Amino acid sequence: MSAATKTAQQLRTIAAFWPGDPFRPNLQLKNLLDALADHPNLSAQAVKAARALQTNEFQKKYPLSDSTLKPASMPHYYTRLVEGFEKSARGIGRPWWKIFFGVW
């Protein structure tokens, strides 16, 4: 097995385990990674970068402080944002009256 075939196989493995995006079913990162595996200039650095993204190495290396995640002006902003994305992915929307009155 050549080095190019080995790196292509590693990238295909990363692509196979990449989670799907429920908000953009026609644009999936796993499809891009799978197509990149066939590129003739695929390098080991590209595979290493994809693996770093998959394992959240940068989030571990550069953790966000509590003051960044909970700004003084709106401490629950990111919590509500994540909750909204999760509910939206399940098809649960906010009632019209909560939107109208600005209630979370």
TrEMBL record:
Task: Name any GO cellular component annotation.
Answer: Cbp3p-Cbp6 complex
Task: Show the InterPro entries listed in the entry.
Answer: Cbp6 (IPR037653)
Among the record's GO biological process terms, what is one? mitochondrial respiratory chain complex III assembly
Superkingdom, natural source: Eukaryota
**GO function terms (MF aspect):** ribosome binding
Write one Pfam family the protein is assigned to.
Answer: UQCC2_CBP6
Name of the protein in question: Uncharacterized protein
